[in-house]
């Protein structure tokens, strides 16, 4: 596999980053994961927009131009022959002697990209529906910044796995914030889609934005507000959204069945429409 690191395309075994890199020492970096379908990038402009927002919040200067980022993504798709999968991009504040204070702004940032060939459309978990558990959301309070600080969600997903579930939904003050690496939704018995409103409590998902647009086009009712854990058991269906999972039905919460225990019609419809829309608009 060819990867990109700081201006070079290299075999993955030859790519290196300094042990003094602040991404390694302080999790001082941000990332994006873009979906590739049919060899093309889905919602790339939205990923770039969010990358700039994350960088800006952390006062990290962009390492290269947006045109260069697009070129690098396309070069890796070509070189690694990615038809379906993901491209991971990470920017860190770069390498400097270890200090809590930021180094000089002129310190070169680290830019790394790699590809993952992956079956995205054919997903057995999406076919049967995810089993989810709830776990207290103990992440830091700037979940809107896509930092590489992923240890808590990683622990939460391990806990889900050890309890025989697929993922965890994180809960703050009795209300769901989001999944470990996805946004969370319920559909009420009267057909209203409910997902937490945008704030510093959640990542502003690129897929969330597109799927809510699809819901709007289908004239489905949407409420952007926090929903309580108690509302999930009462819901007709539930699902998550993310670049790697698309629209992914949820059929069980903390061992209790949601709806009839099968992926719900609204989640299935949104998944279908979202895939169509992604194919049509990918670049
Ligand atoms: N929420 C969290 C915490 C995430 O890590 C992710 C994706 O990695 C998402 C939501 C979904 O975001 P997107 O739809 O942009 O992939």
Can you characterise this structure?
One of its GO terms (cellular component) is cytosol. With 283 residues, this protein is an alpha+beta fold. It has 2 domains: 2-117, Aminotransferase class 4, branched-chain amino acid transferase, N-terminal domain (D-amino Acid Aminotransferase, Chain A, domain 1); 124-281, D-amino Acid Aminotransferase, subunit A, domain 2 (D-amino Acid Aminotransferase, Chain A, domain 2, Alpha-Beta Barrel). The chain is 30% helix and 28% strand. It has helices at residues 22-26, 44-57, 66-79, 124-128, 151-162, 206-217, 229-234, 265-281; strands at 2-5, 8-11, 29-37, 40-41, 85-92, 110-117, 130-136, 167-172, 175-179, 183-187, 193-195, 222-224, 237-242, 246-253, 256-257. Strands 7, 8, 9, 10, 11, 12, 13, 14 and 15 form a 9-stranded mixed beta sheet that branches. A 6-stranded antiparallel beta sheet has the order 2-1-6-5-3-4. The longest helix is centred in the C-terminal third of the chain and has 17 residues, at 265-281. The radius of gyration is 19 Å and the shape is globular. The two termini are 22 Å apart.
Task: Map the helices and strands.
Elements: E1 2-5, E2 8-11, H1 22-26, E3 29-37, E4 40-41, H2 44-57, H3 66-79, E5 85-92, E6 110-117, H4 124-128, E7 130-136, H5 151-162, E8 167-172, E9 175-179, E10 183-187, E11 193-195, H6 206-217, E12 222-224, H7 229-234, E13 237-242, E14 246-253, E15 256-257, H8 265-281
Parallel strand pairs: 7-8, 7-14, 11-12
Antiparallel strand pairs: 1-2, 1-6, 3-4, 3-5, 5-6, 8-9, 10-11, 10-13, 13-14, 14-15
The chain binds pyridoxal-5'-phosphate (PLP).
Function: Acts on leucine, isoleucine and valine.
EC number: 2.6.1.42
Family: Belongs to the class-IV pyridoxal-phosphate-dependent aminotransferase family.
